[in-house]
Design a protein that fits this description.
Strand content: 25-35%
Number of domains: 1
Distance between the termini: 38 Å
CATH architecture: 3-Layer(aba) Sandwich
Shape: globular
Bound molecules: S-adenosyl-L-homocysteine
Structural class: alpha/beta
Largest sheet: 7 strands, mixed
Oligomer: single chain
Length: about 210
């Protein structure tokens, strides 16, 4: 159930669904998604669906992770990425080998602790973790060449726009439950261009710690 054939099938499915980046597809093939879910759900780890991971949170659907990573890295020149909503770290694990450094922010301490251990176990070392509120970003290490948000915001957070480097891209689901759009914001000096990609379904980006 975690075999090469099962993973190949997932990659084929994402290709059919329109994912074009070979680098991203390779990562989907490589990352052992069964290690990010509870044992009871392991047999479903390579289905293209979101799954519960406890504490009211979910592991994102592989297609959505691939789509967001592809959108983030399209024309990517730089090195550092800010990720909001670490969760179980699946998105982090897909992204980390494709960039120089990932700074990731999560508001649930228990999740963050487990995820730190899990990524270390997978020999992923270019990730720095922070317990905090994603609406604030992480100013200390900015500006970032890319920002990726794994929870839906009512509007694009102002602080994240400020922490995006010129030429950088922010990929974020925006909108109320039932009407969320995956959105790409591109910064050109002090001008921001916003482009909707497709409808998505995420847990909300909660305000405050
Ligand atoms: N990236 C994960 C999915 C994360 S689900 C994956 O690859 O599967 C969304 C995560 O965002 C949850 O863990 C939730 O706790 C977190 N979150 C929600 N609001 C937040 C906020 N304001 N700041 C930081 N993290 C937040």
């Amino acid at each position: 159930m975690t075999s090469k054939r099962t993973r190949d099938r997932l990659v084929a499915r994402l290709r059919e669904a329109g994912i074009r980046s070979e680098a991203v597809l390779e990562q989907i093939r490589n990352v052992p998604r069964h290690l990010f879910v509870d044992e009871a759900l392991e047999s479903r780890a390579y289905e293209d669906t979101a799954l519960p991971i406890g504490l009211g949170q979910t592991i994102s659907q592989p297609y959505v992770v691939a789509k967001m990573t592809e959108a983030l890295l399209d024309g990517f020149r730089g090195g550092s990425v800010l990720e909001i909503g670490t969760g179980c770290g699946y998105q982090t694990a897909v992204l980390a080998p494709l960039v120089t450094k990932v700074y990731t922010v999560e508001r649930i301490r228990e999740l963050l602790r487990k995820t730190q251990q899990r990524l270390r176990g997978l020999d992923i070392y270019n990730v720095q973790f922070r317990l905090g509120d994603g609406w604030e970003g992480w100013r200390k290490y900015g500006p970032y060449d890319g920002i990726i948000v794994a929870a839906a915001a009512s509007e694009v957070p102002e602080k994240l726009l400020q922490q995006l480097a010129p030429g950088g891209r922010l990929v974020i689901p925006v909108g109320p439950p039932g009407r969320q759009e995956l959105t790409v914001v591109t910064r050109k000096d002090d001008h921001y261009a916003q482009q909707p990609l497709e409808p998505v379904k995420f847990v909300p980006l909660i305000r405050g710690d």
